[in-house]
Every structure is written in structure tokens, then in C-alpha cells.
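> example.struct
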């Protein structure tokens, strides 16, 4: 479980996985799920969309009802490309975008 990994949601009861799924946001927040939740895929593009969903306000604290969360409107499950021994696979999981480096003042260049 790392950024961009798609996994099955469930309650504490091990056989409760159903049609709910989630996209992981970081290794630090989801490493504890390894071996407990079924990771069945990963995003190969759309890192910015994943971060927009994560940054969205989910609920009105006064009512507990959703406000206007970002939503997934289209996703595709496609067969994984063939794995080649010694080479790996031609696709790759998206990586969390890094913050741009601060530019140096003119005198330090």
C-alpha cells in the first residue's frame, strides 16, 4: 500500500470486503494495511486528480453531510501488461508529485 495503489475497503471483520474501494495517499498512512487488505491495482496516471480528491472537504461538520467532494467520474480496469523476467513491466504506478524546489535568490546562483 503506497501512493496510487487501489485497495478493497472493509470493516474490521475480515470477510466484509464488498464494492467499496480506496486509493492510497502515502506509504506512511497505509503501510499497516499490508497483509490485511486486498490491493488489486494501481493508478498509472492521474496523480493530480488523486491529490485533489484527498484535499477536498468531505463533510459539513455541523450536519455531517457531504458538501461538494471531488468524485471519480471515470476509471478503467485494464489487464496488466506482460511481465518480462529481468526487465519487469512496461507500465508504472503513479508517483506523488513533489513540491517544486524553492528558487534561489539571484545572488546565490
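> example.seq
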Amino acid at each position: 500500500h503506497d501512493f496510487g495503489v487501489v485497495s478493497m475497503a472493509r470493516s474490521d471483520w475480515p470477510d466484509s470486503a464488498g464494492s467499496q474501494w480506496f486509493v492510497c495517499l502515502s506509504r506512511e498512512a497505509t503501510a499497516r494495511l499490508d497483509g490485511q487488505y486486498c490491493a488489486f491495482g494501481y493508478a498509472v496516471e492521474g496523480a493530480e486528480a488523486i491529490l485533489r480528491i484527498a484535499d477536498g472537504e468531505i463533510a459539513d461538520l455541523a450536519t455531517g453531510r457531504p458538501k461538494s467532494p471531488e468524485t471519480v467520474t471515470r476509471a478503467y480496469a485494464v489487464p496488466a501488461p506482460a511481465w518480462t523476467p529481468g526487465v519487469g513491466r512496461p507500465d508504472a504506478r503513479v508517483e506523488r508529485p513533489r513540491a517544486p524546489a524553492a528558487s534561489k535568490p539571484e545572488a546565490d546562483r
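> remarks
The chain has a mean pLDDT of 78.
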